[in-house]
Amino acid sequence: MFKKILIANRGEIALRIIRTCKEMGIKTVAVYSTADKESLHVRFADEAVCIGPAASNLSYLNVPSIIAAAEITNADAIHPGYGFLSENAKFSEICDKHEIKFIGPSAEMINRMGDKANAKKTMVEAEVPTVPGSKGLIDSVEEGIRLSKDIKYPVIIKATAGGGGKGMRIIWSDDEFQEKWDSAKQESAAAFGNDGMYLEKFIENPRHIEIQIIGDQYGNASHLSERDCSVQRRHQKLVEETPSPFMTDELRERMGNAAVKAAKSIKYEGVGTIEFLVDSNRDFYFMEMNTRIQVEHPITEAVIDYDLIKEQIKVAAGTKISGKNYYPKMHAIECRINAEDPHNNFRPSPGKIKTLHIPGGNGVRVDTHVYSGYTIPPNYDSMIAKLIITARTREEAVTKMRRALGEFVIEGIHTTIPFHIQLMENEQFIKGDYTTKFMDTFVLK
Ligand code: MV4
């Protein structure tokens, strides 16, 4: 097992990883930017190294600084958390070269899944269902229009380097093709330095349901059931839950098997997520694979009684997994609490937290790095806490979420708590009757 892990991240996830390391008897090294020197991850780690100024590209994305910090402190592994360097193939490779274990997949695996058209090809070969569309990249508008004749409009063109909605356009007819093609390519080139595009049938009104998987170094893989992430706004998840209200035992079996097949076919090592689109007929299609621990991982931990970070560290150290799959025994919901003003188009609201009261009680977990008197810097992601509720049934979980949100006091800044309170009172949400379109029509009072 590793003796010392450097956590190349900040905020709640850095703290989350430090906690598990402590429970495993592993020493921890925090890295921090000058904007984060008062952060809890710095206080709770065994050692801390300043790696640069506030700007992410000069600190949490500064590879030479992070590698130097690991070498100086004698860390034998680096946990990248999510975001920042977590899906950076170069970084994984550089860790390897320095004989520091990157807790995550190899550079080759990250590259393979990071290119979306390529990832899709891999899934076709593994016989995982994918959306009908182009075989790989399309090279011209003419080719796109020809393909759309067979597939039938609407179609969607997506950046192969994309993800999170950037470089994506829905096309409804031949007339629109050129214009949308040009703008998608331009956007992709600017955002990713890669304007490769692929094409798919556009699935209208889908659900976003993802399967958590884990693979070891010996070719074994398991799934840990699903998370429903359909409540999103501008490709930012707001709430996640498991089980999905749309799930059936039969669908879970089909999706779980497909996800395990995907993981085994690429000999995936580590924790990962296979994202699917699910249509109203409960047909599902591979969308993307995430090769990192995700923000919403705690809801899976809650319903199957499993520490995903602990198991992630164990498989990175060479431990074998059993290969059995895991099924939810409870219901869990996560609300992401962001420092944003929901009444002002979710505009970021950094600043000093004057008063803080964190809810508690049975079935209530709050993952956060903030405290009373803490100043949220404007430089990073606006998520400041995750409120994770566990109960026997969905109805009880929603009721408990309302209670916990009511106890949550954050003064001095705006947060998304008022939004979540209204969501938990929303008739459609209460029925579990929502898709990725839900937020388009949600009206905040
Ligand atoms: C789609 C789709 C419908 N049909 N692909 C959005 C983010 C990117 N990862 C893929 N996305 C979508 N791909 C086909 N063929 C609809 C979306 C989509 C979406 C997906 C998941 C969650 C929220 C979404 C919001 C708008 C569009």
Short description:
The protein is of the alpha+beta class.
Describe the structure.
This protein is of the alpha+beta class and 445 residues long. It folds into three domains: 100 residues, 3-Layer(aba) Sandwich (Rossmann fold); 70 residues, Dna Ligase, domain 1, CATH 3.30.1490.20; 235 residues, D-amino Acid Aminotransferase, Chain A, domain 1 (2-Layer Sandwich), CATH 3.30.470.20. Helices cover 34% and strands 28% of the residues. The protein has 15 helices and 22 strands. The protein has an eight-stranded antiparallel β-sheet with strand order 13-12-9-10-11-14-21-19, with helices on both faces. A hairpin with a 5-residue loop joins strand 12 and strand 13. It is globular and about 60 Å long. The site of ligand MV4 has 16 residues, from strand 6, strand 8 and strand 13.
- Return the average pLDDT rounded to an integer: 98
Ligand list: ligand MV4
Q: Strand sequence of the main sheet, in spatial order? A: 13-12-9-10-11-14-21-19
CATH secondary-structure class of the largest domain: Alpha Beta
Provide the domain count: 3
Overall helicity: 25-40%
Uncertain residue ranges: none
Question: What is the fold-level CATH name, i.e. the topology of the largest domain?
Answer: D-amino Acid Aminotransferase, Chain A, domain 1
State the total count of DSSP E strands.
22
Distance between the termini: 52 Å
Sheet-strand content, in percent, reads: 25-35%
Indicate the radius of gyration in whole angstroms. Answer: 22 Å
Q: Which shape, going by the Cα principal axes?
A: globular
